[in-house]
Amino acid sequence: AMARHAGPRLPLIVKNLIPTLSSVFESQRVTTTAFFAELLNSNVVNDLILLETMMDNMTGRQKDSCLLVRMLALRGLGNIGTGSPEKVRKHGAKLLASMVNGMDDKDDPNNLVALEAMSSLSKLLDHVEERDIQSMLLHIAIRIRPFFDSEQPDLRQSSIVLFGNLSRFSQGDCEVFFEQILNGLVTLLLHLQDPKPEVVKACKFALRMCGPSMGCEGLCDMFLNHLREDRSLHYGEFMNNVCKHLMQSYPEMLNRLISTNLFYFKSSWVDIRAAAPMFIGFLVLHVDEDHCQQVDLDPLISGEW
């Protein structure tokens, strides 16, 4: 409301609030950071030439002893992608570094800072220079991968959406990201059976985005046609066809795909636990005899990992 109705008064308000960002009282730091974070959602800060000042102050809060302040500071930096998207390109390297630092926060037991960093980074990616993200692409992909199986649905959703967004930057140099797509492929396909609809939606999005980088036209077409948000999925039939394309294009990956699936035999989610052996069954069904000989049957029969 203040951004809309009190624009001319904001520079003085911001000036008077900046000292409280260093207040000894945690509640004052939280309140001021929250106010600045939401203000950055509006282009008014750009019109009033406040953007750089507020951005620098948000960046300075990343070392705050209060987890909530660190989280809100990242939210503010991410909101620049909404409020002043035309400025993101100029400050891209600085903003990306802040998000990566947030994901690496060492004092974040519930991953709240990491969650905010992932959500904010997804907002910024539409506006950053490709060269700025390329140098961090691999680090971010490896860092977010463990969150795909988090017990917290919002962490699963945000990390998977971010992974899909990152894949856009892989298509010019497929080798950089291709290995990460292969590492995450089984997980994304199994989480199409996730108990949370928002995570299923995120997986559909990520697989559609990753398809063009996989070098298999049939698989890419399947992801685009069958994983639309508005379309229900016949999972068994879909996986049968996916495995056919995988074994035609990447038969040497059979053991790797099987061993990743074996990990999910003990998943806490029953639908994913059921999907993993079905996935393996379709892989073995469609692989040619030469590659089938490479399969180590002992862990497969015992269901151990």
TrEMBL record:
Coiled coil (residue ranges): none
Domain Maestro/Maestro-like HEAT-repeats: 56-302
SUPFAM superfamilies per the UniProt record, alphabetical: ARM repeat
Domain of life: Eukaryota
GO cellular component: cytoplasm
One matching Pfam family: HEAT_MROH2B_C
InterPro entries in UniProt: ARM-like (IPR011989), ARM-type_fold (IPR016024), HEAT_Maestro (IPR055406), Maestro_heat-like_prot (IPR045206)
PANTHER family: MAESTRO HEAT-LIKE REPEAT-CONTAINING PROTEIN FAMILY MEMBER 1, MAESTRO-RELATED HEAT DOMAIN-CONTAINING
UniProt-recorded name of the protein: MROH1 protein
Organism encoding this protein: Eurystomus gularis
